[in-house]
Specification:
The longest helix has 16 residues. The two termini are 28 Å apart. The protein is mainly beta. It has a domain of 77 residues. The protein has an eight-stranded antiparallel beta barrel. The protein contains one helix and eight strands; from the N terminus they run αββββββββ. Keywords: Signal. This is Outer membrane protein beta-barrel domain-containing protein.
C-alpha cells in the first residue's frame, strides 16, 4: 500500500510541476468491471501534451463483493482520433494497468468432533499487470468541465472490461 501511495504522490507532483506547460484536469468517475462484476469509483488526472496526445492516470476502487476487494491503477495515454461536430473528441486509449485484489473470508470455526475444531479463515492477495485498450469521448460542457465516457479492456491473466464515465475539472 505504501508503494501505491508513493506512486500516486509522484504522479500528482508531476502534474503540479508541469502545470504551466499544458492543460491539466482532475476529477472522479464511476465504473462497472465485467469480470469483477461490481461498481467502482475512481480518481482521475488528465494532462494534455498537445492537441493529439495526453496522459490520463487514474486509480479505481471497486466495491467489495463476495469477500473480494479489487482496485486498479492505470497509466494511460490518450490519442485524439477525430473531432465530432457539436459533441467532442473521440480518442483511443492505451496504457499500463496494475490490478490489485484481496480475498478475506472469516467463516468462523467448524467443530469436527473427535477430529478437533478448525478455523475457516482465508486471506489471500495479489496483483496482475496488464495493458489497457479502449475508446473514449471527451465532451466539453464548459471551459473548465468535461465529461468523458469510456470503454476499455484490460488484457492480462485476469482480464476484464470496464465501462464508465469520468468528470474532469480544469485547473
Amino acid at each position: 500500500m505504501k508503494t501505491l501511495l508513493r506512486t500516486l504522490l509522484i504522479v500528482s507532483l508531476f502534474f503540479v510541476v508541469t502545470k504551466s506547460q499544458a492543460q491539466i484536469s482532475v476529477g472522479g468517475g464511476l465504473w462497472y468491471g465485467s469480470d469483477i462484476n461490481t461498481i467502482g469509483i475512481s480518481a482521475n488526472g488528465h494532462y494534455s501534451f498537445d492537441e493529439k496526445w495526453s496522459a490520463a492516470p487514474s486509480f479505481t476502487y471497486f466495491f467489495e463483493k463476495d469477500y473480494v476487494k479489487w482496485s486498479a491503477l492505470d497509466f494511460d495515454a490518450n490519442y485524439n482520433l477525430t473531432e465530432l461536430e457539436n459533441i467532442g473528441s473521440l480518442y483511443a486509449i492505451g496504457g499500463l494497468n496494475i490490478t490489485f485484489w484481496s480475498f478475506d473470508y472469516d467463516g468462523g470455526t467448524i467443530d469436527m468432533g473427535e477430529f478437533g475444531s478448525y478455523d475457516l479463515d482465508v486471506d489471500a492477495s495479489g496483483s496482475d499487470v496488464g495493458l489497457n485498450l479502449g475508446l473514449g469521448l471527451n465532451i466539453a460542457t464548459s471551459d473548465k468541465l468535461a465529461i468523458a465516457p469510456e470503454i476499455k479492456y484490460t488484457v492480462s491473466d485476469g482480464g476484464y472490461l470496464r465501462i464508465g464515465a469520468k468528470i474532469l475539472f480544469g485547473i
